């Protein structure tokens, strides 16, 4: 059975630049079995000299190859979008892990580093490293926060998706 979730944009229909962001497929027992997400993109130009626009619901995002890889450097880049997806998932997962562990924290800030190796012959992402800062935490409990940061790495499903293809690590954990 396919049923749209309340938080889905577009309510199951594509209407030009407002694609449905997700659709749920419900199992027999009422649990969600599958979520389907949609993003649209337009690209013009050849290779690294081109530029594109992605649409996430009503939000257009311009992207191109980064300038340090010979591209236009307009907007964001596919490389930044990849590490942004990991960062977004990790940040929400870390807040949930902190709450479950009864560790105080009002918010988290994450700096994420992505490393591309063997450029330009055989470029590939080799490493993604998250560096969480926990705001409003208890500095006397750093080891518990460090453990929570590593648990969040294991639970973040976007990170689990990429970790077989690159080194996905937790870097410096800071309590502010």
Question: How would you portray this structure in words?
Answer:
This protein has three domains: 1-38, no CATH class; 40-76, no CATH class; 78-175, GMP Synthetase, Chain A, domain 3 (2-Layer Sandwich). Helix content is 24%, strand content 33%. It has three helices and ten strands. Strands 7, 8, 9 and 10 form a four-stranded mixed β-sheet that branches. A three-stranded antiparallel β-sheet has the order 1-2-3, with no helix packed on it. A hairpin with a 5-residue loop joins strand 2 (22-26) and strand 3. It is globular and about 55 Å long.
- Class from secondary-structure proportions: alpha+beta
CATH architecture of the largest domain: 2-Layer Sandwich
The tally of domains stands at 3
Q: What is the level 1 CATH name of the largest domain?
A: Alpha Beta
Shape category: globular
- Structural Rg: 19 Å
So, the CATH homologous superfamily of the largest domain? Answer: K homology (KH) domain
Distance linking N and C termini: 47 Å
Q: Gist?
A:
This protein is an alpha+beta fold. The protein contains 3 helices and 10 strands; from the N terminus they run ββββββαββααββ.
Features:
176 residues, alpha+beta, GMP Synthetase, Chain A, domain 3, 3 domains, 4-stranded mixed sheet, 3-stranded antiparallel sheet, 3 helices, 33% strand, globular, disordered N terminus
């Amino acid at each position: 059975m396919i049923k749209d979730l309340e938080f889905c944009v577009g309510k199951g229909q594509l209407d030009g630049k407002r694609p449905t962001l997700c659709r749920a497929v419900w199992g027999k027992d009422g649990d969600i079995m599958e979520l389907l997400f949609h993003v649209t993109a337009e690209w013009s130009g050849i290779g690294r000299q081109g530029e594109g626009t992605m649409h996430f619901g009503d939000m257009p995002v311009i992207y191109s190859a980064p300038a340090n890889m010979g591209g236009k450097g307009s907007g964001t880049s596919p490389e930044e979008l990849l590490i942004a997806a990991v960062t977004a998932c990790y940040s929400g997962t870390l807040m949930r892990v902190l709450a479950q562990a009864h560790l105080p924290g009002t918010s988290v800030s994450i700096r994420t580093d992505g490393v591309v190796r063997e450029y330009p012959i055989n470029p590939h992402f080799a490493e993604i490293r998250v560096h969480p800062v926990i705001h409003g935490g208890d500095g006397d409990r750093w080891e518990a926060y460090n453990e929570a940061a590593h648990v969040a790495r294991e639970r973040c499903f976007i990170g689990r998706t990429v970790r077989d293809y690159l080194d996905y690590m937790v870097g410096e954990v800071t309590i502010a």
